[in-house]
Structures are given as structure tokens and as C-alpha cells.
Amino acid sequence: MSIPVFIDGAAGTTGLEIRERLTGRDDLSLIEIDATRRKDPAARAEALNAADFVILCLPDDAAREAVRLITNPQTRVIDASTAHRTADGWLFGFPELEPGQQAAIAAAPRVSNPGCYPTGFLALVRPLVRAGLVPHDWPLSVSATSGYSGGGKAMIAEFESGGGSAFRPYALDLAHKHVSEMQRHARLAHPPIFAPAVANTYRGMVVEVPLPLHVLPRRPVVEAVREVLLAAYEGSQVVRVADDMPPVVRIEDDAGSDRLTLRVRGNDAAGQALLIATLDNLGKGAAGAAVQNLNIMAGLDPYAGLRL
Ligand SMILES: NC(=O)C1=CN([C@@H]2O[C@H](COP(=O)(O)OP(=O)(O)OC[C@H]3O[C@@H](n4cnc5c(N)ncnc54)[C@H](OP(=O)(O)O)[C@@H]3O)[C@@H](O)[C@H]2O)C=CC1
Ligand SMILES: CC(=O)N[C@@H](CCC(=O)OP(=O)(O)O)C(=O)O
């Protein structure tokens, strides 16, 4: 018997990506609503309550409304929006982030998908904080560049009509909506300084965290930092710690995939390291993560339908 799944916001950028990953699977069946009624609360409520699993691919307010529309206690939710990432009663849907996180996701009724930028930042930083290599009150900073599909249909239209830019830093008030999620789930005492930018390419992401090793209390060498990450993600088919030494990384490196690649580069003589994550904002940054969480919650192969 196939498991009924409803994607609320299925016509949006993330929703369409999830549909693509679920197409052809006979263990799941998608509940559809008529396109003309896709924003009608009554039609959505009917679908939301008929599903075993709901994936919300909506703006934050619409995601909160969808949760209010659910009255069926059997309906379990994966929210791709920012609405519930630090909310009580919601589990953070990053199975590789902590020991035991995948088992907790498997049992959770409400799972919040991580944001695209926090996915890169947390994967790089959380194991180092957990291992005590980076003190929890360290003043971290992170810069990151996203493809323009990160801004959904509105930003895609802006860039594809020529209104974008080759490279556009933003959130210059240092109050981007992802900062609290990064601080909370890395378990940091202070918010990281977060400098995001959008580039004139459809999809893909590079996240960079500079780390001055020579002033860290334990003064680790570059390889010691890499070994902590290697141990943290051992056995994962999604999160990989690369052992290559490319002279450059490219925003395209993991675009079109659901992989998350981590690199630790640096210079021991200078006592400096650079932590680098590449991913697809629509892959492990959104749709890939949602499908992985769905698989885990439904007790299926965690990697089914993923682009690895
Ligand atoms: N794009 C990305 O890389 C990532 C996005 N996210 C998050 O995922 C969510 C979806 O983003 P994204 O797919 O990019 O956004 P889009 O704008 O591309 O899609 C959102 C969809 O939701 C629909 N919608 C809006 N309001 C309602 C409503 N009340 N009821 C039903 N449908 C509604 C929109 O309709 P219409 O077609 O009419 O506009 C649209 O189809 C957001 O919260 C976003 O922040 C998370 C990680 C990465
Ligand atoms: C390029 C761009 O604009 N990106 C979006 C983040 C996309 C994303 O992951 O946002 P969610 O938190 O909603 O998941 C932004 O900075 O707001």
C-alpha cells in the first residue's frame, strides 16, 4: 500500500523539485488538488487531513496557516519554510547533525527542514563545537553565495527578466532570518556574523567559515579540524568530507544534486583555516532534505529518490 503525501505549495520552486524526486515511486502516492483551488483553505484542509505526510513549501505565514488547518492527529508534517525552525514542538530536520537526530526524526510528528544557508554553516561548525575545538562562545562569521532560485519564484522572475546582478551581497543589516537558526542549532552563545549574497546562476551554493586556528584555545592544525568532520559524517551518503585539494571550488560543484560537500582548507604556517561547504539550495538546502526527512519518518530507505 502506498503512503499518501500532500505537498502544500506544490506549484512553487521547492514544491516542484520535491515532486520531481517523488515521481515514479510506488511506495508513496501524491494527493493532488485542483490548480484553481490550490490556495483555497477548504481544499487545502481536506488534503492536509487526508495525508499521512504533508510537506509545506509555502511562505512562512501560509505554512503557519497550514499547520492550523491540520486536525488529523495522524498527519505528520515537514515544513520547508522558516516558520518553525526554532519553534517549540518542532524537531530540526537535519539527520546528520547530531548523534541520534535521525532516530528522533523517524519518530517526530513535526519536523522543520533546515534553511539552505544554515545547512552549510551547521554542517561545518556544529561538530567542531561539539568536540570542543571551537568554544561555544567563539565569535564566528560566515559568508555564503546562493543561486537566485533561493529567492523562489519572485527572485527567479527578477533575475530572468534581467533585473538581477552578477553578484549581490544582501542582508547588510546583519539580521538575516537564518541567523537565529544558525546560533540555536550550532549551540553558540553569540549569533554568527552572516554575510549572504546571491549570484546570477540558477542554483547552487557556497558557504564559507573562516577559522583563525592560532588563537583557538587548542591551536589545532588544519588536518585535525578535518578529522573531526570526517568522524562526524562517517557513513553518510549525503554529507561528504572531501579529501581532494582543488585550487578553487565552484558554486556549480554540487548544483543539481542532493549532496553536501565539506572541505577544510588552510595554512598551518599562518594558523588559518577556511571551512567550505558546497550544496544545492534546492537540493540538500530544500527539496533533497525534505525527501530525506520524509523517507526517514516513513521508515523507508533514507536515500530513496535522492540525487547522490
Ligand atoms: N528556494 C529555495 O532555495 C528554498 C526555499 N525554502 C523555503 O521553502 C518555501 C517555499 O519557497 P519557494 O519554493 O522558493 O517559493 P516559491 O515562491 O517559488 O513558491 C511558493 C509557492 O507557495 C504558493 N503559495 C503562496 N501562498 C499560498 C497559500 N496561502 N496557499 C497555498 N499556496 C500558497 C505560491 O503560489 P504562487 O505560485 O501563486 O506564487 C507558490 O507556488 C519558503 O518558505 C522558502 O523560504 C527553503 C529552502 C530553500
Ligand atoms: C537567495 C535568497 O534570497 N535566499 C533566501 C533564503 C532561501 C532559504 O533557504 O530560505 P528559507 O529560510 O525560507 O528556507 C533568503 O536569503 O531569504
From TrEMBL:
GO terms for biological process: L-arginine biosynthetic process. It is found in: Cytoplasm. The keyword NADP applies. Pfam families: Semialdhyde_dh, Semialdhyde_dhC_1. The keyword Cytoplasm applies. CDD domains: AGPR_2_C (cd23935). The active site is at residue 116. Catalyzes the NADPH-dependent reduction of N-acetyl-5-glutamyl phosphate to yield N-acetyl-L-glutamate 5-semialdehyde. Its EC number is 1.2.1.38. InterPro entries: AGPR (IPR050085), AGPR_AS (IPR023013), AGPR_dimerisation_dom (IPR058924), AGPR_type-2 (IPR010136), NAD(P)-bd_dom_sf (IPR036291), Semialdehyde_DH_NAD-bd (IPR000534). Signal peptide: none annotated. Residues 4-105 form the Semialdehyde dehydrogenase NAD-binding domain. This is N-acetyl-gamma-glutamyl-phosphate reductase. HAMAP family: ArgC_type2 (MF_01110).
